[in-house]
Design a protein that fits this description.
mainly beta; Jelly Rolls
Length: 167
């Protein structure tokens, strides 16, 4: 039987700065030169990257944003809630999982530069997912939210921001 502990051990997942556990499983060898990328990128980027990502009940992935689109894929466990604050300021809650009768989806794309966070749904022990980023993920493109600053931008989402930020 799959458990969070067995997955963490099997795939040698490491603690992620935003919460949960992860392991990079793919980084394209080919490079996109900075002059061919939008201005928001500060250097060359690999074509794409992929990671495994696991969250257990009681943990969360704090609000953050990156400069690329990020495709989330559901693998195992139960429902993961992904909270996205769109560029227009609307809060969307995506149910990533395998119960399509309850409105869950196997994949979801978080658009570049949107603030997002995630947590296992209340009835969930753990969620094991994957994330694919193109152009590739680079920590230079990663920004972890500060609750007070994010609340100033989106005061209507104060409760969820306070709950899903680490600073």
């Amino acid at each position: 039987m799959l458990t969070a502990k067995s997955i963490i051990e099997k795939y040698k997942l490491l603690p992620h700065p935003e919460g949960g556990y992860y392991k990079e499983t793919y980084r394209a060898e080919e490079i996109i030169k900075q002059n061919a990328l939008p201005q928001r990128f500060s250097g060359d980027r690999n074509f794409s990257t992929a990671i495994y990502f696991l969250l257990e009940q009681g943990n969360f992935s704090a609000f953050h944003k990156i400069k690329s689109d990020e495709c989330w894929h559901f693998y195992a466990g139960e429902t993961l809630l992904v909270y996205v604050i769109t560029q227009a300021g609307k809060l969307e809650i995506i149910r990533l999982g395998n119960n399509i009768e309850k409105g869950e989806t196997f994949q979801y794309i978080v658009p570049a530069n949107c603030w997002f966070a995630s947590e296992p749904a209340p009835e969930t022990n753990y969620s094991f997912v994957g994330c694919t980023v193109a152009p590739a993920f680079d920590f230079a493109d990663f920004e972890l939210a500060k609750a007070n600053e994010l609340i100033k931008l989106y005061p209507e989402h104060k409760n969820i921001i306070q709950r899903l930020c680490r600073s």
